[in-house]
Amino acid sequence: MVRETRMDKSSLIYPMFIVEGTNIKEEIPSMMGQYRYSVDRMEEKLEQLSKAGIGGVMLFGIPDHKDELGSGAYAQDGIVQQGFRKAKELFPDLYMIGDVCMCEYTSHGHCGVLCGHDVDNDKTLELLQKTALSQVQAGADMVAPSDMMDGRVGAIREILDKNGYINTPIMAYSAKFASAFYGPFRDAAESAPAFGDRKTYQMDYHNRREALKEVDQDVLEGADIVMVKPAMAYGDLIREVKDMTDIPVAAYSVSGEYSMVKTTAAAGFIDETAIMCEMAVSAFRAGTDIYITYFAEELAKCMDEGRIG
Ligand code: PBG
C-alpha cells in the first residue's frame, strides 16, 4: 500500500537483433540467453514478447554487407526494414521502434560518414534522415536516433514531417555516454570501431552539465522522449533529467549491465532474478518512465507475479 515506486509492463522495451539469412536463431556469445534472429525466425520471439505485454520492441539490424557510407542502414530492402515489415505483418499491434545509427552498417564501425579519421557530423545527418524515413516507411512506429550527431533530432523531425509522418515520435538517445558497458553489444552487432573510439560524439562520463545540455537541445529540436544511457551507473542523471523536463524519460540498461548479471549469476555468486528486479526498480525510482532492457520479458513476469511493480 505504501510502496512509492510503481511500474507497469507497458513501460518495458526489448531490444532485438535481426540478421540476414534464413532459419537462424543463434546465441550471442557475449550475451548469454540473447539471440540473433533471421527475419523468418522472428515470429517465435515476437509472439512471446507480444504475450508478455511489454510496451515495445526495438530492432537492430546486422547486415552481411558493410560499406564506407553504411548504405545498408537506409536501403529500402535493408535487413532492419525487412524486419519491420515482417513484424507489422505478423503482429500489427506490437509497438516497433527503430534504432537509427550507422555503426552496424559501416565498414569502419563508426556512427557516421568519415572525413579522414573523423566523423563528419553534417554529412551524416542526411544519411540519418534517410535511415529514419526508410524505417518508418517499412513500419516502425517510432525512431530512436543513437548516433549522437549534433542536430539529428531536428533533421529527422523535418524529413518525417515532410513525408507526412507528422505523428511518428522520436525517442532521442540524448544523454548517451561513451561507455565500456556497450562492449557485449558491439560483439553482438559486430559494430566495434575499427580504429579510435566514439569519444568525439558520445559523452565523457565525467560530465553532468553537458548531459543536461544535450537533453535541452534534443527537446528544442522536437524529441518526444529523451533517454539516458547506460542506466545502472547513471541513476543521478536519470533523476536530473526527469526533474528538468516534462516529456517522458527513458533509460537503457545496456548489454554490459545484462551480461554482468548473467555471467555472475551463472557462476553462482548472485541471484539473477533478484538483481534484475533491483536494477529495474532503481531505474524507475530514479525517475525513468520507460526502461529498455534485455530482461524485458523476465521483468514482465515478475510484475505479473507481484514481485515488483
Ligand atoms: C548504436 C547503439 C549502441 C547501443 C545502442 N545503439 C552501441 C554503441 O553506441 O556503441 C548499445 C546498446 C547496448 O550496449 O546494449 N550506436
Structure, explained:
Strands 1, 2, 3, 4, 5, 8, 9, 10, 11 and 12 form a 10-stranded mixed beta sheet that branches. This protein has 10 helices and 12 strands. It is globular. 38% of the residues lie in helices and 19% in strands. The chain has 309 residues and is an alpha/beta fold. The protein has one domain: Aldolase class I (TIM Barrel, Alpha-Beta Barrel), CATH 3.20.20.70. Ligand PBG binds next to helix 5. GO terms for molecular function: porphobilinogen synthase activity; zinc ion binding. This is Delta-aminolevulinic acid dehydratase. Its EC number is 4.2.1.24. Keywords: Heme biosynthesis, Lyase, Magnesium, Metal-binding, Porphyrin biosynthesis, Zinc.
Short synopsis of the structure:
With 309 residues, this protein is of the alpha/beta class. Helices cover 38% and strands 19% of the residues.
CATH class: Alpha Beta
CATH 4th-level superfamily: Aldolase class I
Helices, by number, come to: 10
**Whole-number count of domains:** 1
How large a portion of the residues is in β-strands, by DSSP E? 15-25%
**3D shape:** globular
Which residue ranges are poorly predicted, with pLDDT under 50 across at least 5 consecutive positions? Answer: none
- Rg, Å, rounded: 18 Å
Main structural class: alpha/beta
Summarize the main sheet.
Answer: 10 strands, mixed
Would you count the extended β strands for me?
Answer: 12
Helix content: 25-40%
- Rounded to the nearest angstrom, the distance between the terminal CA atoms is 11 Å
Return the average pLDDT rounded to an integer. 97
The CATH architecture name reads Alpha-Beta Barrel
Series of secondary-structure elements, N-terminal to C-terminal: EEEHEHEEEHEHEHHEHEHHEH
CATH topology: TIM Barrel
Query: What ligand species are in this complex?
Result: ligand PBG
